[in-house]
Batch of 3 targets.
Target 1
Amino acid sequence: MMVKPCPECPFADPNQLHLNYERKVEIVAAIRADSPFYCHNTVDYGEDVGQVTSKTKMCAGSVILEEREGILNQYGRIMERVGLYDRDKLDIDNMELVPYPTFDDWIEATA
């Protein structure tokens, strides 16, 4: 799992991927429904369709917001149980890394 958002993280800067309001709502709904959100820099887009591989990592920006909301997804909880995720390695309270307290604030930032 990544411990810091990548430079292009949509949760650190909502304009990075030019996501419209509807797409942001879809992303958050999926995350809140317990779907993992992967760092786009670690997904294999070799055939134009994103493929999760052994090198794919959870998006640190998403995990920071999940932790702030207390909704870490099942994948994250499993990783924590097997010692592959340590919330203390994330700078969860650093508003400079991810400047939104919640996913709803992130959605509304570019509404």
Note: The two ends are 29 Å apart (CA to CA).
Target 2
Amino acid sequence: MISSSICANHRRTHPSRLAHSVLNIGDLVTTKLALHGGAIEGNPLSSVLISHGALNPAKFLTLAVLAWCISRTPPRLFSTVAVWFVAGVYTMVIASNLLVYANTA
């Protein structure tokens, strides 16, 4: 009983869920800004999704799956480090998108 309440509390309060939501939305917005400014998508998968008009649904599906996975993972050192590592990667992607946008606009 105690472990389920700890896990439930973890799902409610884990800051990485909010961080990943914000970073995914930031990635989507900055990608669209850069593309609108004349940039070309460098990620082959995203490029295909953009050409088929499926980037938004794919991003939101990714965000939902990621949030679900994070909410189901108990707080352990490896999972916490992995989640924050991915947050760092998203932060670099957003910074890169903003730099590309600044140079193309």
Note: The helical segments are 2-13, 15-36, 44-51, 55-72, 77-104.
Target 3
Amino acid sequence: MADNVYGMMASASSKLNLKQFEHLTGLIRETWEKAAGDRLRERLLVLVGRIGKEAGQMKAKQVNAATIRYIKTKLTSHFNADYT
């Protein structure tokens, strides 16, 4: 079920204007922060990847790159905290 929803969201993302697209990625970031487990975060990574594939426009590349950098930073700090 979630895969279908993610597929629809990814397809629709290519039709959003920049403000709407930034709002969507902001919601993804908020969900990432509130995620209780790794499973949800894995699903969010899949969603970000699908959005990147669907929305080949410049806005997708710019905002997705920022979102990926943000998630990478959070992952790095998460794993560093686990091993210290």
Note: DSSP finds four helices and no strands in the chain.
